[in-house]
Write a structure and sequence with these properties.
This protein is α/β, with parallel strands linked by helices. Helix content is 28%, strand content 18%. The protein has six helices and nine strands; from the N terminus they run βββαβββαβααββαα.
């Protein structure tokens, strides 16, 4: 029935303070699983580091890359090892859950973060038969209210994004 929050994927580095410090030929790490790879590639494209075939869309793979302006070496790493890879790479692309396990918070620790309007935002869903029930619209309105937005911002310091 509507969007909830985005738990953003972000770029983390132990070596760089900003993306402008990224050197040509640097090695970066992205998740090795298909869904993580695709999401990371879209994020890298959003930061104009890569381009890939339009046909790939949200299912992009390394084979779909058509442009790599800094000739980055992209290393696929299992999610559980991405935070450890920060010692060997210029940056790693890590989702919020794995970053939190490593004590990293997107708004505080990242050098680049996914937009709130990410296609990977979470959704509020109800059974199809309940979609037009009178309680559905007020539920969504309550979730999208200013007090909830304020709570999310105060509690998560913009490490959880609100797409509404």
């Amino acid at each position: 029935i509507g969007s909830t929050v985005t738990l953003p994927m972000a770029l983390y580095s132990r070596k760089l303070k900003t993306l402008t410090q990224l050197q040509r030929g640097a090695t970066i790490a992205i998740p090795a699983d298909a869904a993580g790879t695709a999401r990371a590639l879209v994020l890298l494209q959003n930061f104009t580091l890569l381009t890939f075939s339009d046909r790939a869309g949200l299912h992009a793979t390394l084979a779909d890359i058509t442009g790599n302006r800094l000739h980055l070496n992209i290393r696929q790493v299992p999610r559980s090892q991405l935070s450890a890879a920060l010692e060997q790479v210029a940056f790693a692309v890590i989702d919020s859950a794995d970053a939190a396990k490593a004590g990293l918070y997107p708004a505080r620790d990242s050098i680049g973060i996914e937009d709130a309007r990410s296609p990977w935002q979470n959704v509020l869903a109800v059974r199809a038969g309940d979609r037009n029930e009178p309680w559905v619209a007020p539920l969504l309105a309550a979730y999208h209210s200013e007090p909830v937005a304020k709570f999310i911002l105060e509690r998560y310091q913009d490490s959880v994004r609100r797409p509404w």
